[in-house]
Write a structure and sequence with these properties.
Helix content is about 40%, strand content about 25%. The chain is α+β, with helices and mostly antiparallel strands. Strands 1, 2, 5 and 6 form a four-stranded antiparallel beta sheet that branches. It has a three-stranded mixed beta sheet with strand order 3-4-7, with helices on one face. Strand 1 and strand 2 form a beta hairpin. It is elongated, with a radius of gyration of 42 Å. The relative contact order is 0.15.
Length: about 210
């Protein structure tokens, strides 16, 4: 009987040792897995930081931009053939001339209103003066050529012809479409300027033209 009991106790001791070794092995395996996962994800962590998206532009920066003065955004080359006829008693006289001109559209930053550049959080907003003709002496008189000239003409007659060509160029070139093109070019160039200064987000608008 005692031999049976001893056999059972010996068996239980053997089973307990196996179970204990198994438990230790499982625990070590779990710790190894946890350690490996932690090592792999040591750089993958979420950090919540409170950061301000507000930007600021200094008065000195605004002044340096404004000192550019006139900024051309569209140049339009034009030529006009104009004529005048003077009916005479014996014969008519005629004057036809070809005029060349370059009309330059842009803005004059010296005309910008106070606070023409403001910031709203991460956005920089620039309000530009209206697109206008930068130089009113746009006819190149050195290139003006007579096409037909018969009879004698006074300086006043030639001035009238000049004014006629001048007004034709204005009507042909200062159009809503050309103004829109100049505005689009202005937005592109100012956006690039502000981006180069460290302001990635900007909106360019224009003052309403006074009627």
């Amino acid at each position: 009987m005692r031999e049976i009991i001893d056999s059972i106790l010996h068996l239980l001791k053997g089973i307990s040792k196996i179970v204990w070794i198994s438990l230790i092995g499982i625990i070590l395996l779990i710790l190894a897995i946890v350690g490996l996962v932690g090592y792999i994800n040591k750089d993958n962590h979420l950090t919540v930081k409170k950061s301000s998206q507000r930007i600021d532009i200094t008065p000195m920066q605004i002044q340096s931009i404004q000192q550019i003065g006139q900024w051309e955004f569209l140049a339009i080359n034009d030529e006009e053939l104009v004529d005048t006829v003077d009916r005479g008693f014996f014969r008519d006289k005629e004057l036809i001339r070809i005029y060349y001109g370059t009309l330059r559209l842009g803005v004059d930053l010296h005309q910008a209103k106070p606070q023409w550049i403001v910031t709203e959080d991460s956005l920089l907003i620039a309000t530009l003066p209206p697109i206008r003709l930068l130089d009113r002496n746009f006819i190149d008189e050195a290139r003006t050529r007579p096409f037909i000239e018969t009879g004698t003409w006074t300086p006043q007659d030639r001035e009238k012809l000049y004014n006629k060509a001048y007004n034709k160029m204005l009507r042909r070139c200062i159009t809503p479409e050309n103004i829109r093109i100049a505005e689009d070019n202005a937005r592109t160039q100012f956006t690039q300027l502000f981006r180069s200064m460290g302001f990635p987000y900007s909106r360019i608008v224009f003052e309403e033209k006074e009627k």
